[in-house]
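Lay summary. Proteins are chains of building blocks that fold into shapes, and those shapes determine what they do. In this project we predict the shape from the chain. Here is one chain we studied, written as its sequence of building blocks.
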Amino acid sequence: MVGIIMGSDSDLPIMQEAIDVLESFDIQVEVDIVSAHRTPEKLVDYATNAHKRGVKVIVAGAGGAAHLPGMVASMSPLPIIGVPVKSRNSIDGWDSVLSILQMPGGVPVATVALDGAKNAGILAAQIIGASDTCVLDKIIAYKEGLKLKVEKASERVKK
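And here is the predicted shape, written in a compact code that computers can read:
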């Protein structure tokens, strides 16, 4: 199972891409709003207990100051993937990117591109696929599909 959390429901349109890709690989997801600043007690509970519920990877999306992924990473033994979200109060998204990217040594957060929830979902699936051959086979097929799309596009351009 993959936990997908975000700081606000306004992040859901971006984070939906991670949900969709994980569901396409038949990976169970749990989705919740967990604000680092407005619900700190919920954040602590989520970060310290997710692994006990069977969560294997957490994808955390946040905009603005974007403390959610790093705070979760500071308390959870699970791999954390941070999705910087360009929010309406954002400084072109750079505040979110740098807040998630610039973690201190010992507290890693894998960080994808601004609004890159799809890649976060794929990365979470790949992490799970490292120990689950069924998911691994789906990742291999997905990557083959990407290759075929490029090859077909190349053929169209050459004509």
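What the prediction tells us: The CA atoms of residues 18 and 121 lie 4 Å apart.
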